[in-house]
């Protein structure tokens, strides 16, 4: 029986391997696709004559070079800049736009709480616990010291934000409509992880000694003793298993948005089209347009369009063009 | 217009994923929302040949006459798209379906159709992507949000990808920058490989690939039209004006959308260009030439595919090189500036003429005339691109006091400004037009903050949606803009909406009539033309009695 418990020791390695390999595969897969055009969504005043004022937000939202495009990416990734514009349209109120930045708020709360929770968990994997982890935990618990063990804000905030984000997918008709099973699945994983974690800390109050020994054995690559495994609380095993499943699931899911956003051409490209030419890797020397050069080949048949260069054009409309030339290329008001 | 009902109703029903993952059926394809499929004369033409374009197809018949092995062809095209465009591939993978984009789409707001939410429009393609290109989709099928291709899926793609105007408003709000325009654009490219092209845009693409402009205007017609403009200007200003066309050795090539030669209210904008160029020549000796070969600034190819866009915009640098110009001025147009700002110098090689090279070594307008010294295009443009927007140029001329302006000539206008989507989100020209308008007129008011600048609403007709058969979709899609317009009309008494976009100028007159808003539509260059004092011709500010529309400037006396 106890041998079977070693599954839990193997599990994180498998999950982590899937995560790393899967993520790298996805990223390389994206990177291998060409970027034919420079297509930033310009969300602010473009770089222009100096007398037109550009605010710092314009510089970020309509970046004039790669550096500002990078700043834009940081704003997008760490502050959810685009979501910060969110509004809701109310047709029944005559097209009134109502601020809907609560979506931004809960998204920020959710993601940052998760980040802090992950960092806090480092205390299980380190010995001695680094100071920054202790500091984070201290700050996290500052408001909840009255409770033993101290109530950590982020756990609660994450749960509330999760309830909110899932709630809108269930209760709002529009969001319910666009939600696929996979959208609910990942929220379900997060819910199990959060609830089991909170239960362990505040309600069941399980013995963390064995958990820490188990965690350390994972990072030290030394299999834990059967005694440690046998003393792991079932609730912990649920928590742990779901964390592993989630980590392994990430490369196959929409959670890959954390990496994909860096590849989003509407955000990571500068609005400097008029300063620097972008070269299309699969059409680097477009002297003649593709349709007239090689045409489109579909099912073995090539469809080629005739090229309308000046010479062809001149041949076709010779009389009219000669007439224009006779007027010395000058147009004047018609005489009546 | 008669086919659009007086009262538009929005009946919303939100199916769950299990239902919507099933594609729509033929009977769900409704007139007023479905684009006609291109005819052989458009897509099997000598100058624009698309695969399987030789068959006539009807969007309202059960049989779309797809080629026999369409599935393989489409999957090949899909694979090619994933390899050729990183944006497309990343956008297939990273959407979390948060819904931030949903009510940012004017077509969703106007139709209430859940599949018009940007996330769902892209999902019609993503579901297929998951089935053929991800393991989870293959194994779990529907439960992983995946579905195999069948004819109805193709019909759904065609129906919904051509209900998108590629305005990119959703991409502004998306936390990952997912650009539905990119998904729709490359999705349309895939459809074009199995013979499905939208008729409206292909009429223009074919005409432009054969004659040089979307309207299919021949050289003589275009010249005649400009001559007529000069006659009108003679009536209005009393001066004998002229302009150049196809002139070798001119300083600057000017490229405008072809609608400016004929349509109203585009026409008044063209009169504005002509006034400006005459003043520039008379005062500074700058010669600006039009071209009948590069007679189209707009590019309906950008609604169709990379290749079609390239086919159309390839003429302009070639013409700049042939005529030996120094740089290019672009006219007022929306998607033209997505094309001219973001695409053209990637899709084409740059002009190699010595004049171009010499100018761009030190791109100060002082090179053209000493009196213009100090206006340096090098502050944001280089010889690797070489285009300046006419409004940017006007802004600089006003700033440096190189042209004389009398804003009181526009006192009979109370204006607001509509940012064309592509100029705002594909270029970022937000402040220059406002700078110009504040200088050339006294009464200018912006619409509410949520619908201007980068957050601007689409006119509902861009991206190839300007077709007659899509009138109901257009009138629904324009609704958010019309609500905002009505607000400023009531609050400030606005009587003209200015927009530097040819498609806007075609859509809005119809839209304000439908939505019963008493306002005129025009372009900023029309106001510039009104206010521009032709000092070098001896004109005094008070000399002009009529504006470019022929209405008396200072009221009847």
Short description:
With about 325 residues, chain A is mainly alpha-helical.
What secondary-structure arrangement, pairings included, does this model have?
The complex is a heterodimer of chains A (336) and B (557).
Chain A: H1 7-32, H2 56-61, H3 66-79, E1 87-90, E2 96-99, H4 102-120, H5 122-125, H6 131-141, H7 153-171, H8 173-178, H9 181-203, H10 208-219, H11 226-230, H12 234-249, H13 257-260, H14 265-268, H15 290-293, E3 296-298, E4 301-303, H16 310-316, H17 318-326, E5 330-332
Antiparallel strand pairs in A: 1-2, 3-4
Helix pairs in contact in A: 1-12, 4-7, 7-9, 9-12
Chain B: H1 17-20, H2 40-43, H3 70-84, H4 86-93, H5 106-111, H6 118-133, H7 135-140, H8 151-161, H9 169-173, H10 180-192, H11 199-211, H12 219-237, E1 242-245, E2 252-255, H13 266-284, E3 288-290, H14 306-323, E4 327-330, H15 335-347, H16 354-361, E5 387-389, H17 390-399, E6 404-405, E7 415-417, H18 421-425, H19 431-440, H20 471-477, H21 479-492, E8 496-498, H22 502-514, E9 520-522, H23 524-531, E10 532-533
Parallel strand pairs in B: 1-3, 2-3, 2-4, 4-5, 7-8, 8-9
Antiparallel strand pairs in B: 6-10
Helix pairs in contact in B: 3-10, 6-10, 8-10, 12-13, 13-23, 14-15, 17-19, 19-23
Average predicted confidence as pLDDT of chain B: 91
Give the number of helices of chain A.
17
Biggest sheet strand order of chain A reads 1-2
Structural class of chain B: mainly alpha
Give the biggest sheet of chain A: 2 strands, antiparallel
**Count of the separate structural domains of chain B:** 3
What is the overall number of helices of chain B? 23
Remind me, CATH topology of the largest domain in chain A? Fumarate Reductase Cytochrome B subunit
How much helicity do the residues of chain A have? 55-70%
Query: In one word, what is the shape of chain A?
Result: elongated
Distance N terminus to C terminus of chain B?
Answer: 38 Å
The ordered H/E elements of chain A are HHHEEHHHHHHHHHHHHEEHHE
Give unreliable regions of chain B as ranges.
none
By DSSP, the count of extended strands of chain B is: 10
Q: How much of the residues of chain A is beta strand, in percent?
A: 5-15%
Q: Name the chain pair whose interface involves the most residues.
A: A-B, 111 and 142 residues
